[in-house]
Specification:
Residues 10-77 form the RNA polymerase sigma-70 region domain. Residues 105-155 form the RNA polymerase sigma factor 70 region 4 type domain. This is DNA-directed RNA polymerase sigma-70 factor. Keywords: DNA-directed RNA polymerase, Sigma factor, Transcription, Transcription regulation. The chain has 178 residues and is mainly α. The chain has two domains: 1-89, Orthogonal Bundle (Rna Polymerase Sigma Factor, Chain: A); 101-163, Arc Repressor Mutant, subunit A. 67% of the residues lie in helices and 0% in strands. It is built from seven helices and no strands.
Amino acid sequence: MNPDPRRARFERLAPTVIDAVRRYLARRTDPATADDVLSETLLICWRRLDEMPEEHLPWAYAVARNCLANAERAHRRRFRLVARISRLDPPPTVVDGPSPPDGDLAGALSRMRPEDAELLRLWAWEDLAPAGIAVVLGITANAASIRLHRARQRLRDELVGKTGPAAGHDRSTEGSRT
C-alpha cells in the first residue's frame, strides 16, 4: 500500500510512458542518447506531474522531443568543439563516422523539410492522430491535419521522383495558345 497519491499516480503512468517514449526515441537517435533523453523525460514528468493531462502520452512525447532537441544541440556544440580542437591538434588517425541509413524512404525523408519528416514520423511511427501530433508540436489539431496532408503529398512526390514547382499539378496544354 502506497500512502503517497502523487507517487502512486506516477508509478501507474510511468510504464506506459517509458515504453512509448523509448520506442519514440529509438527511432530518432542512438541507444545511448535515447537512454539519457528517456531519463530526462521521466524526471520532467515527475517534476511536472501535476501539469500532466489525462491524455498523457502526447504530452510526454512533447517533453521527449524537447529533451532530444536539447541533447542534439549539446551534441552539435561538442562536435564543433572537437572540430576546432582537431584543427589545432589533429589526431594521429582518422576514424570514419557512422554510415547513413539506406533505403528509398530514408532518402526521401532526408530530402524533406525536417518539420515535415518529424510530422510524418509522429504519424507513422508513433501512430498519433492529428490531435496528438498537435500536442507534441504545439500547434492546433487543424494545422496538424493540414500539415500532415501536405507532408504525405510531399513524401509521395519524393518517392516517385517528382520535383520542381509543377510537382502535383500536371499542366494541360489542351486549349492553350502557342
